[in-house]
Predict the structure.
Amino acid sequence: MFYDLSLLIYFLGTFLGLWFVFKKAGLAPWKALVPIYNIVLWIKICGKDWKWYIYFLIPAINIFTFLLLVVETAKTFRRYGFWEQTAAVIFPWVYLPFLGLSSLPYTDPKNLPPHKVSEWRDWLDAIVFALVAAIIIRGKIFELYHIPSSSMEKTLLVGDRTLVSKYSYGPRVAMTPLSVPLVHNVLPLTGGQVESYLKWIQLPYHRYPGLGHVERFDAVVFNYPDGDTMCSAQFSNRSYYDLVREYGREAVWNDNVYDAWGNRIPIGKIRVRPLDKRENFIKRCIGLPGENLQIIDQQVYINDQPLTDPANLQFTYGVLFKPGMGNPRKVLDEVGVSEEDYQNALLQQQYVATPYFLLPLTRQTAEDLRNRYDVADVQPVIFPLGDPSRDLFPHDTIRRWSIDNFGPIHIPAAGETISLSAENISLYQRLITTYEHNSLDIRDGRFFINGEETSTYTIRQNYYWMMGDNRHNSADSRYWGFVPEDHVLGKFVAVLWSHDKDHGRIRWNRCFKSISSFD
């Protein structure tokens, strides 16, 4: 209600201001309430030419144009002060009514005397416009993201610069307003150790209407669900909860963690982050609210029906080259295997003592290699059901799931009531406590939510199941479970630019391509 009221005040204030500004300019005030026509007249009374009409038709550019028009309106009232024009840009719904209701007279731009400003003032004006408009665009319309990992290959590649639409699912209101503009969660040039926000004010979740909802196979950007608590030396490389499960809470809190080979795992500071300041992940939506999901030998089933796989899906294959026939690195480079994947395969050869290269490949690439004269064998790697795994969701000692044989599991939907039992509480415990902010106690097999005994729970928001296209190299829902709707940020729509670090060149064939070009 608060956010809807704020939006209403914004628009009402703007229209109210234009009503009185139009009146002072000699126009019928009611024309300020007519969509599109009011923009045409507003441009006219500010003395601007036909190009401004075009600017208002261009997404994102029209935000700059709107803010500039507010400043141009201030100039028609001979208001040139820097701080006053800055206030006009930041609070147009207040400043326009102020102009219209004040005793200040309107002057036709043709009759305004010349007014020059210093060079530093020009720079300050430009910075204010750019900053305010960029904050609005980044928060409400779209944002640029860099793909840092291979979890979505071969759909999205390391080095892709992507455009993510915030408006596709509706822009989410910033929940941590006291933060440095245009910075996510840490300040640049601080080695990731200085946070860019203050947690003094935390606003509730709210999402404005968008173009639609999350659909199956959308590439979705969202806040890392397991990232509410994190280790500053690990970021999203290793989940805090994963480290605690493997090494114990005391070792993690004392920064005294070592792997099986005796190598120290640095922990750094343990931080609790607000929802909107957690790391951003991008994965593909596989399961929707209310559906049942199961993975059997790598095949995903939704409500017992096999799901058609994305075209560029990758799994791990073992590739065996014939001795003395060609250069394996050259062959693998030709089929798109990255230097990182190749080096990892060399390390795995040493650790597991195998002549096979264990590599993430699409089915088509695996088939192409299988048909080569210098390749002896290509075998898929499938992880069967095994011992209960603490690595995989829901991290209990009951289920024998693997990354290739997982489930069945039910994806909760808003308004749905689930029965609680000893067998399923591990699936929903984090949902009830962390995502939906309840207390949960279990005593003698009985469940107490917010102090009241119950055997059921009604879900408050929708949840999704997200998985990477690089199925054996993706930290996704198989590891940390459901993605709540309030974690969703936006939808990947296009690759704007792409840089291949292995070969030091731009991938021109990927630039300005929509996601449909890669599916």
